[in-house]
Amino acid sequence: MRTTRPTRRDCLRWIGAACAAGAAGAPLMSSATPLTRVLERGVLRVGLYHDMPPFHVDGKGIDVDLAQALSESLGVKLALLPFHADDSMNDDLRNMVWRGHYLGYGPADVLLHVPVDRPLMEANPQVSIFAPYCRDQVAIARRLERVPQLDSLAQLHGQAVAVPGQSLAGWLLIGADGGTYRNQLSTHWKDGAEAAHALQRGEVAAAAGLASELESVLRGDDRFAISSLPSPRAPRNGWAVGMAVKRDAAELAQALQRAVDALAASGRLRQMFSRGNLTWAAA
Questions:
Q1: What are phi and psi of 121, to 5 degrees?
Q2: Full-model pTM
Q3: CA distance 108 to 166
Q4: Cis peptide upstream of residue 107 (ω within 30 degrees of 0)
Q5: Is 113 helix (H, G, I), strand (E, B) or coil?
Q6: Sheet holding 161-162: strands in order across?
């Protein structure tokens, strides 16, 4: 049985009734919650990373589709706030969630693609991190005819490996086994998707990066295999990926959590990942 999604006017009526007693004639914005302000404005501002295949490239990708679905769940329009990653996740949370960039950009109402990580939460008490919608990990892809088995990095000896140097995969490989593989690494790639394309073209025997980057290029091609990077320093089982709002935005977080749960239950989230050539699994 189909149900009608509440309109933005309905949502405002419900929240307005709850806030009316405390408003006492004061302007609405003085006591409005973050969710109320989104509904009043009629726009959900979503922060997402520039150049993060397959989640966001040139205004398209999984995170763009997810942002659109989140705004639809609230009955409002979408405004994307794409930005370039800073030096650390702490900087990104400060610039895009709880304070805004010193150049005047942001903050967003919600930031996508945030690791659901306890130490990160503890280091950033100004934000709430929630609603994991996928998992990712450091991975390596290989051409099976050249590297049929890969139980340890030693099996890559003498083989060219593409990896973005300024990435977790790059740092792990550059320092692995005391720098043993440094001379066989090609590190000028922008991201793991570019490294995967080099593997696809036959320029290297293997490519490392995030599993999502590699799979988005190589999924369905039986000439290649993708597996976890066999390094003891790589995060075991990867990490969950979710979103973040300001600490005081509990109502907004709850509404977005419900939206993600509904997208997962309906199969729509799986469809978004399939369009990005990824296999979706619950985080």
A1: -60, -45
A2: 0.87
A3: 26
A4: yes
A5: strand
A6: 185-186, 161-162, 206-210, 138-143, 224-228
Determine the Cα–Cα distance for residues 207 and 219; give it in Å rounded to an integer. 14
Instruction: Give exposure, 115-150, as e/b (b: 16+ Cβ within 10 Å).
Output: bbbeebbeebeebbbbbbbbbbbbbbbbbeeebeeb
Query: Taking each helix axis from N to C terminus, what angle separates 192-200 and 211-218, rounded to the nearest 10 degrees?
Result: 40
Structure-token pair, residue 269: 């989230």
CB 67 within 8 A of CB 79: no
pLDDT digits (tens, 9 = 90+) for 180-211: 999 999 999 999 999 999 999 999 999 999 99
pLDDT tens digits for range 22-37:
433 444 444 789 999 9
Kindly list the structural domains of the chain, giving each domain's residue range(s) and its CATH number in brackets, ordered by start: 8-114+250-275 (3.40.190.10), 138-228 (3.40.190.10)
Q: Count CA within 13 A, CB hemisphere, residue 123.
A: 13
* Strands 77-83, 43-49: pairing kind: parallel
Rounded to whole angstroms, what are the CA distances from 78 to 7, 15, 46, 232?
15, 21, 7, 42
Helix boundaries (H) for 79-191: 89-93, 118-123, 168-175
Q: How far apart are CA 28 and CA 16, in angstroms?
A: 9
User: 147 CB contacts (<8 Å, ≥6 apart)?
Assistant: 155, 156, 159, 205, 206
Q: H helices within 86-164, ranges in order?
A: 89-93, 118-123
Cβ atoms of residues 56 and 50 within 8 Å: yes
Query: What digits encode the pLDDT tens for the residues 234-262?
Result: 988 899 999 999 999 999 999 999 999 99
